[in-house]
Amino acid sequence: MRRRVARALARPLVLAAVGAAIPLATAAPSAADSVVIGGFPVDVSHSPWAVALASRDRFGGTRAGQFCGGVVVGRTAVLTAAHCLGGDVVGAPPTRDLKVITGRTDLLSRQGKEIPVRAVWVNPHYDADTNAGDFAVLTLAEPVPQSSVIPLAGAGDPAYAPGTSATVYGWGDTAGTGVYAHSLHAARVHVLPDAQCERAYPGGSEDGTYLPGSMLCAGEATGGRDACQGDSGGPLVARGRLIGLVSWGNGCGRAEGPGVYTRVSDIVRTLSQVLGVKASRGAPDEP
Predict the structure, then answer these.
(1) Which residue, 270, 31, 237, is CA-closest to 149?
(2) CA 176/CA 182 separation, integer angstroms
(3) Are 151 and 283 in contact (CB under 8 A)?
(4) How far apart are CA 43 and CA 29, in angstroms?
(5) How far is CA 152 from CA 81, 203, 237, 247, 260, in A?
(6) CA-CA distances (angstroms) from residue 266 to 50, 179, 260?
(7) Which residues contact 93 (CB under 8 A, 6 or more apart)?
(8) Does 19 have pLDDT greater than 60?
(9) Is the pLDDT confidence value at 287 over 70?
(10) What are phi and psi of 118, to 5 degrees?
(11) Which of 15, 42, 85, 178 has the highest CB neighbour count under 10 A?
(12) Number of helices and strands (H, E) in the chain?
């Protein structure tokens, strides 16, 4: 039986910093299983809100320490997946060299900035068993330009309608086989009906349970385009607004296992209380 996998980049078998052997994957939510499967390269200048989470101490310098994605929702606030910040991923307390890479298309370039994280807030109601509430906020040590901030889609926004074209971004596995991209990729997918997602993930197995109130799923009827390992916490954007965060799924790009995202409309109230960030009212549509 296939396991649901959180879509964060699995750490090496042995961490040089601590010399502790760890498994490559667990039954936790799947962090983007790949660098956007079925996607295409994009320049970060066209999506400045897409950022990479990195720790060279934990993940080495081959890809600048990138292990998850994130999205800028305030000048000093980055939204990501809660499971990306678990103690088994970044340590407890989180590694001191945790940074957010902004304005960088190629992880191996010197483009953009590597901004230290000043504070970490993980949703206290995150449920690692159901994957509900899979979001966290990083506070940056210095602000980014306002132009890098993406608006949030609130409840009732047409961007959530089934059939809506959306785009997922990340630096993760591009083939589902452990082939990770150095450069930012994106893939076009469509928002799927809740009923289809509930059929794919009805619960009662390791494949996971789809909860429409707090989750959103997207993909293609025939599969082939999806997020994958290393993309967790990255943005799903529709009509110029953030509608989801890469959270989990059954494999990558499978027709029978669409990607599941944290539904942004479900967390807007919490974000408003924690950050003062509110949902958008009529942001311009994505071209």
Answers:
(1) 237
(2) 15
(3) yes
(4) 28
(5) 16, 29, 9, 17, 18
(6) 21, 33, 14
(7) none
(8) no
(9) no
(10) -85, -30
(11) 85
(12) 4, 15
Contact 99, 55 (CB under 8 A): yes
Q: In 3D, which of 103, 145, 135 has the Cα closest to residue 244? A: 135
Strand partners, 68: 53
Task: List active site positions.
Answer: 83, 134, 232
Q: What percent of the chain stands above pLDDT 90?
A: 55
Burial of 168 (C-beta count, 10 Å sphere; 0-12/13-18/19+): buried
Range in 40-49, 122-131, 166-175, 234-243 with the lowest mean pLDDT: 166-175
Mean pLDDT, the chain, rounded, equals 81
**Structure confidence at residue 230 (pLDDT):** 85
CA distance 62 to 181: 11
Q: What is the residue whose two structure tokens read 């320490």?
A: 65
Q: Which domains does the chain have, with CATH numbers?
A: 10-26+49-148 (2.40.10.10), 158-265 (2.40.10.10)
* Residue type (1 letter), 141: A
- Name residue, tokens 């103690």: 87
